[in-house]
């Protein structure tokens, strides 16, 4: 069964049978290795668990309707687990936990900033992309949270976290405010929230200046397009460094800069 939820990743709160338990569905995805559906769930605003639910356990519509799904989930088993599997069988036709386990999940290893913030400390606001959201934090204020929701997304943020260490103090990108944690592992990072618009051809000269500054640090952006610039009256910054690499190749730097005009002309 393929699940397609229009509000994928939205946070939905619902109190389940046990009045002491509040569950919030944070993210939903198809399991790439089976027909199950994966859920990233915040329990009691303190810990995050991952559920896989077999196809056919619930009505198909319930897989995308958080209140309906959470109302039908079996009671969470006790214990220090972070992965669980829900199924039903001929011998046991009611939905039930087939297993729970504690698994060491992969995390970002290139952490370098002194500030660490747990995911549950954030108040998540509007999602700009499935894994990028506006958020607020009691100490840091208004931020942008960028994070891996699933294990297969970790590698992208591993690379980008490293790039922000190279950019630290340069004003080329948003200020890196700290690492985003989940259960003792690093899953992403927090950035300064900036106001601005994406670049157009009228911003070419200012955009070229910031790209030259990036190249002076021997870094290629790797994905220069108008959406990866934020332009305001005071500054132009680059964002989205997932594909950025170190390079001392002046030819590659020149090629990247030459392609900027065409990118800013594209809608």
The main β sheet shows up as: 6 strands, mixed
Lateral arrangement of strands in the main beta sheet: 1-2-3-4-5-6
The tally of helices reads 5
Q: Tell me the total number of β-strands.
A: 16
Helix content: 10-25%
Rg estimate, integer Å: 21 Å
Average pLDDT score: 91
List the helices and strands and how they pair.
Elements: E1 12-15, E2 22-30, E3 37-43, E4 47-53, H1 66-72, E5 83-87, E6 96-101, E7 116-118, E8 123-129, E9 132-137, E10 141-147, H2 154-167, E11 176-182, E12 185-192, H3 204-216, E13 219-220, E14 229-231, E15 236-238, E16 245-246, H4 250-258, H5 260-265
Parallel strand pairs: 4-5, 7-11
Antiparallel strand pairs: 1-2, 2-3, 3-4, 5-6, 8-9, 9-10, 10-12, 11-12, 13-16, 14-15
Describe this structure in words.
With 267 residues, the protein is an alpha+beta fold. It is 18% helix and 32% strand. The protein is built from 5 helices and 16 strands. The protein has helices at 66-72, 154-167, 204-216, 250-258, 260-265; strands at residues 12-15, 22-30, 37-43, 47-53, 83-87, 96-101, 116-118, 123-129, 132-137, 141-147, 176-182, 185-192, 219-220, 229-231, 236-238, 245-246. The chain has a 6-stranded mixed β-sheet with strand order 1-2-3-4-5-6, covered by helices on one side. A hairpin with a 6-residue loop joins strand 2 (22-30) and strand 3. The model is unreliable at 1-19 (pLDDT under 50).
């Amino acid at each position: 069964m393929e699940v397609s939820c229009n509000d994928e990743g939205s946070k939905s709160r619902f109190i389940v049978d046990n009045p002491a338990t509040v569950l919030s569905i944070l993210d939903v995805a198809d399991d790439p290795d089976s027909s199950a559906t994966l859920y990233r769930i915040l329990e009691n605003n303190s810990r995050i668990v991952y559920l896989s639910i077999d196809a056919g356990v619930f009505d198909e519509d319930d897989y995308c309707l958080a209140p309906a799904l959470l109302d039908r989930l079996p009671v969470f088993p006790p214990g220090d687990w972070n992965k669980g599997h829900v199924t039903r069988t001929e011998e046991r036709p009611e939905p039930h936990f087939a297993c729970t386990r504690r698994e060491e999940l992969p995390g970002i290893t290139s952490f370098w900033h002194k500030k660490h913030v747990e995911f549950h400390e954030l108040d998540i606001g509007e999602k700009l992309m499935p894994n990028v959201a506006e958020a607020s934090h009691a100490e840091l204020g208004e931020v942008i949270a960028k994070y891996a929701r699933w294990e297969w997304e970790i590698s992208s943020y591993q690379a980008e976290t490293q790039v922000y260490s190279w950019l630290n103090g340069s004003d080329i990108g948003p200020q890196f405010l700290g690492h985003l944690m989940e259960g003792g592992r690093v899953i992403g990072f927090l950035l300064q929230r900036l106001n601005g618009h994406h670049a157009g051809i009228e911003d070419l000269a200012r955009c070229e200046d910031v790209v030259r500054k990036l190249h002076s640090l021997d870094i290629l952006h790797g994905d220069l397009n108008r959406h990866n610039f934020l332009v305001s009256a005071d500054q132009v910054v680059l964002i989205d460094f997932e594909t950025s690499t170190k390079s001392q190749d002046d030819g590659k730097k020149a090629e990247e800069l030459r392609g900027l005009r065409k990118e800013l002309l594209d809608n």
